[in-house]
Amino acid sequence: MEYGEISQFLKRVVGALGRCVLLAVALPLVPVLIFNLPLAPALALITSGFMIEYGAAPIGIALRLPPLFVFYVLMCTETGIFLGLFDIFDTIGSASVPVTRFLEMTQQLARRSKVMERYGIYGLIPCEILIGVYFCAPVSRVMGWREYPALTITIAGYCVALIVTILATLGIIRFLRL
Q1: Position 177 pLDDT exceeds 80
Q2: How does pLDDT run across 39-98, given as a tens digit for each residue?
Q3: Whether residue 178 has pLDDT greater than 70
Q4: For residue 110, what are the domain limits?
Q5: For residue 95, what pLDDT is reported?
Q6: Domains contained in the chain, number
Q7: Which of 8, 36, 54, 131 could be cross-linked to 162 through a Cys-Cys bond (beta carbons 3.0 to 4.6 Å apart)?
Q8: Max Cα separation, the chain?
Q9: Phi, psi of 150 (to 5 degrees)
Q10: Average pLDDT over the chain, rounded to whole?
């Protein structure tokens, strides 16, 4: 790679990371400032959202954050992670000839698969629930799916898991208070 190519590559990676931080960290902090919510629990929720995704909902609720705010923060975090990872993998895929060849070969193999032909991008829903966004974003890029349809399908699976987790957590808290 020449200097100009390296510079362009780094700009795209930094842009992807910036997009991730904006969506996953800065956007969730807006309601903290507007509604005067406690900063430390909000930051703990954001951080745990990066690590355990929808499993962070009980942490946010245990920290006495409103369930709607917990939902909002974790949706922002998930979206930021997905878009950041997708952009990074897209950048790597377009910057390296061997990686580009690998992606083309993988997409051709996937097109011949009966399972992929039948379910395709909708397989991201159970994949998100069972494995998580750190797998869905790279798989979406490797399979050649467009960014926003893949994000929409992934977020649909995440939303289901997050709502069930929040409702279960609220039910357990209500049960323990009796």
Answers
A1: no
A2: 999 999 999 999 999 999 999 999 999 999 999 999 999 999 999 999 998 888 888 788
A3: no
A4: 3-177
A5: 81
A6: 1
A7: 54
A8: 67
A9: -65, -40
A10: 90
- For residues 77 and 50, the answer to whether their CB atoms sit within 8 Å is yes
Q: What is the DSSP string of 104-156?
A: HHHHHHHHH-HHHHHHGGGGHHHHHHHT-HHHHHHHHHHHT--HHHHHHHHHH
Instruction: State the Cα torsion 94-96-102-108 to the nearest 10°.
Output: 30
Give the Cα separation of 132 and 158 in Å (integer). Answer: 8
pTM: 0.89
